[in-house]
Amino acid sequence: MYSKEEIVKSVPQTGFVGQPKGLFTLFFTEFWERFSYYGMRAILLFYMYYAVKDGGLGLDRTQANIIMSIYGSLIYMSGIIGGWIADRITGMRKAIFYGGILIMIGHILLALPLGVTALYLSMFFIIIGTGLLKPNVSSVVGDLYAENDARRDSGFSIFYMGINMGGFLAPLLVGLFQKNWGFHAGFSVAAVGMFIGLVVYLMSQKSLGLAGSVAPNPLSDKEKKTTTRNFTIGGLIIVILGFVAYQTGNASIENFSLLITFLGVMIPTLFIIYMYRSPKTNADEKSRLLAYIPLFICAVMFWAIAEQSSTVIATFIDTRTNLNLWGFEIPAAWFQSFNPLFIIVLAPMFAIMWTKLADRGPSTPKKFALSLFFAGISFFVMIAAIVLTPEDTLVNPLWVVFSIFLLVLGELLLSPVGLSATTKLAPAAFAGQTMALWFLASAAAQAINAQLVRVYGMVSETTYFGVLGGLSVVLGVIILLISPIISKAMRGIK
After folding, report:
1. What pLDDT is recorded for position 389?
2. For residue 162, which phi and psi values (nearest 5 degrees)?
3. Helices 22-49 and 312-320, interaxial angle, to 10°?
4. Which of 118, 137, 320, 417 could potentially form a cystine with 114 if both were Cys, beta carbons 3.0 to 4.6 Å apart?
5. Beta-carbon count within 10 A of 253 CB
6. What does the pLDDT look like over 372-429, one tens digit per residue?
7. Rounded CA gap, 456 and 454, in Å?
8. What mean pLDDT is predicted for residues 275-281?
C-alpha cells in the first residue's frame, strides 16, 4: 500500500485547466459513463409504461414508477460491493474498468427487442457495473490531491461538470433517436457511449500515476477463505428466500419495494456503525464519522426530492405538461437535459466562487442546509404551477424548468461539496467504502421514493409536493442551527 504522499507525487499536478493531469482521464470516463446512464434513464420509464403498440412494454404506470425507484436505489446500493471489492481485492482502477464492461453489456441488452426479460437482465448488469465504477472513479479523483490542497473542491466541481455534460447531451440524442426510430435505437446510443468511455479510460490512465492502482486494505489469506464462505452462504440464502417468495405468491414488485426500502435505510446505518467500531478507525476518524451522519441525512432528504425527476416529475411532464411548442412536439425525455444544462452553466461559477472565498466561504454543513432550502422551494414552485393553471389545462413547461433550476442551485451546494467532504472525512482503511456510503444516500432516498410514488397516486398533487417541500425546509433550518457542532466534530476538516 502506498502512502498518500507517494500517490500525490506520482500524479502530474498540472495539465488539465490548472488541475492534476489525471483529472482529464476521470472527467471523460465519467462523462461517457453518465452519458450512457442518463440517456438510458431518460426514456426507460416511458419504455416501461408506454403501450406495446407504441414500442413500450405496457406496464402499469405506478408499477413502472416503483420499478424505476427500486432500480435507482439498487444502482447506488451496489456501491457498497463495488467499494469493498476495490478496497479489498482489485484496487479502484480495475474496478472501474470491469464496471464499465458490465454497464455496456446491460445497455446492449436493452438495445435488443427481447421484452421484459431483457429489461430485468440489463438492470442486473448495470446495477453491478455501476457499483464497481461510480464510487471508485470519484475516490480516485480524491487521491489526485493532497489533503489540504485548496484546488480539491474546485476540482470536484469540474469533475461534476463533466458528469453533467454527459447528462445534458444524452437525453437530447437518445430522446431524438427514440422519437424517430424507437426505444431500442435510443438504448443503442447509450451502449455506444459506454464503449467510448472505456476506450478513453484505457488510453489515458497513465496520467493517474499510482492513484487507485492497488487495494488499500487487501484481504489476508484467512480473510479470503472466510469471505468466500460468507458470500456463498449469502448467495444461497437469497436464492432460497426468492424461491420461497415465488412459491407462496409473495414475489410481487410491491413487496420487493418494501424490502428495498428497509435495506435502503438499514444498510447505511449498519455500515456507519461498522466503520465507527472498527479498530482500524482512530479517534479523529470516529469524530468525523459522527459529523458525517447529519450530512448524510441531509443528502437523503435532498435526493428524495431530486431523484423524482425520473419518476414523479417525469410522469408529470409526460402527462400534465404542454409539450407542444410552435407546432413541434417536444420529446418528454429532453426535460432531463435541463438539470445538467444548468449545472454546466453554473458549476464553473461555483468552482470560482469557492476558490476565491477559500476559508471565508460557508462551512460544509451550512452549504448542505442551503441546498435543502432550494430543494423545498423547487417543490413549492410545482404547487404554484398546479394552482395557477386553469383546470383541464396543461401546465406551462416553464414552471417545470424553473423548479429544475432551483433544484440545481441546491445540487451544486450539496453534491460536489459532499463528494469532496466524503473523501476528506473517510477513515483511511475505508476510503472506497466511505465513498460508497455517500452514494448510499441516493440509494436510501430512492428506496424511500419506491413508497412515495405509490402515495403520489393517492393524495392530491399539491399535498404531495407541499409535504415533501416543507420537510426539506424544516430539516434545512435544523442543520443550519447545529452547523457549529457538526463543524467542530469534523476535527479540522472544512
Report:
1. 92
2. -60, -40
3. 60
4. 118
5. 15
6. 999 999 999 999 999 999 988 999 999 999 999 999 999 999 988 887 788 788 787 7
7. 5
8. 87
Q: Which of 32, 37, 56, 33 is nearest to 318 (CA)?
A: 56
Q: What is the pLDDT of residues 454-465, one digit of tens each?
A: 898 889 999 999
- Which of 450, 439, 452, 437 minimizes the C-alpha distance to 71? 450
> Which pLDDT score is estimated for 1?
67
36 to 11, 131, 138, 201, 449: CA distances (angstroms): 28, 15, 17, 15, 23
pTM beyond 0.90: no
Q: How far apart are CA 212 and CA 143, in angstroms?
A: 7
- Exposure string of 12-28, with b = 16+ CB inside 10 Å and e = fewer, is ebeebeebbbbbbbbbb
Please check whether residue 372 is in contact with residue 364, taking contact to mean a CB–CB distance below 8 angstroms: no
Pick from 162, 97, 156, 160: nearest CA to 129: 97
- Domain edges within the chain: 14-217+249-489
Task: Name the fold adopted by 14-217+249-489.
Answer: Growth Hormone; Chain: A; (1.20.1250)
Q: Looking at the DSSP assignment, which residues form a beta bridge with residue 20?
A: 15
Cβ(217)–Cβ(60) below 8 Å: no
* Rounded-to-integer distance, Cα 420 and Cα 343, Å: 17
CA-to-CA distance for 344 and 79, rounded, in angstroms?
26
DSSP 8-state assignment for residue 458: T
Q: What is the pLDDT of residues 99-111, one digit of tens each?
A: 999 999 999 999 9
Instruction: Say how many C-beta atoms besides its own lie within 10 A of residue 478's C-beta.
Output: 14
What does each C-alpha distance from 293 to 252, 419, 486, 487 come to in angstroms?
Answer: 33, 14, 9, 12
- Give the residue-averaged pLDDT of 194-212: 87
Residue 226: CB atoms within 10 A of its CB come to: 11
